[in-house]
Input
Amino acid sequence: MNKYWSDLAKRLVPYVPGEQPRDQKYIKLNTNENPYPPSPNVLAAIREAAQDELRLYPDPTCKELRQIAAGYYGLQESQIFVGNGSDEILSFAFAAFFNPGEPILFPDITYSFYEVYANFYGLESIRVPLDEHFHILLEPFLQANGGIILPNPNAPTAIEAPLDRIRSILEQNRERAVIIDEAYIDFGGKSAVSLIADYPNLLVVHTLSKSRSLAGLRVGIAMGSEELIEGLERVKNSFNSYTLDRLALAGAIASFHDEPYFQEMRYRVIQVRDKTVGQLRQFGCTVLDSKANFVYVSHPDISAKTMQSQLRAQGILVRHFMMPRTEHFLRVSIGTEEEMEQFVEAYEVILKQMIGSTP
Output
C-alpha cells in the first residue's frame, strides 16, 4: 500500500476494463466495440479540425453539438449535456443527484462501474435482484431510496426492460432522480427519451462509442430536464470546463450529420447478432435475448471459464465475469460477419473436443 495515498485512494476498488492485448492478433469480442469503422465523414471532419486552431481551447459549452443533438432527439438545447464519454457523465450524475446516507438502487447484475462510483462518492447502495430469467422487476424499485440507476438494455445480460416498466419506476419515484443508461439502445431497444417531457426526474444517458463507432473519441450525451442538466453542469465545471476537445466535437457533430451510415452500420450489427444467436442455440446453448451489440451465452456441459480459455487459445477473446448467478455465462461482443463465423466455428470445434458432439 503506497504510504502517500489518501484514505480514499486506499479504499477504492477500481473498475477493471476489458483486456486490450498487445502480444498477438486476436479476434476481439471482449469489449463491446463496434466492428465497423466510423463514417468517412467523421474521419474527414477530424482531419479538418486538426489545424492551427488546436492551440485554442475548445468551446466549453459544446454549443454546436448540443444544438445538433437536441434537434436529433426532439429536445431543447438546455436539455442536453455532453461529456467525455458516458462514463464521465455517469460519474458526474452520481455526484450531482445522489447523497450519502440515502441508499441508491441498481440491479444486482449490472454494469460494475455503478458500484465503483458509489464507493468513490461514499454512497450507500442496494443491489436489487433480477428475476430468475435476469429481468428487471418493478416492485423492488418502489422501496425507499436516494435515487435509481438502470442500464437498458442491461449489461452484461443484454436484456431490455420494457418501456412501460421504466415509466412505472419513474412514476413511483418522482421525488428522486432516475438515470437510464442507454449505452446499447440503438441496437434494437426503445429509448426512454420519449418520457423526458413527462418526468423531470429522468436522466437518459447515451454514448457515441457503440452504435456510432467512436469508442476512441470519447463522447457521451445526457438528456433530461433543465434542472438535471444544470446539476451536471455545476459538477462538470467544478472538475474541468473543457471535457471535449476540438477533434471530439468535430467527429461527434459529423456523426449526427451522416444518418444513413449510422442506420446501415447498426442494422448490420443487429443482423449479425441475430444470426449468431440462432447458431449458438442450435449447439444447445442458452443465449439471453439481446438488444445490444453483444450476447450472453452459456452451455450446460462446459464451464464458461473453460470455454473462454479454449477460445483464447484459438485467438478469440470474450469476457467472463465471475459473479453469482452468471458465472456460467460468457459475454460475446458482436464482430463482423466473418469474425462471428470464425467464433461460431471455433465454439463448435471446442464443443466436439470437450463433449464429443453437438446437437
Observations:
- The first helix runs from residue 7 to 11.
- The two ends are 52 Å apart (CA to CA).
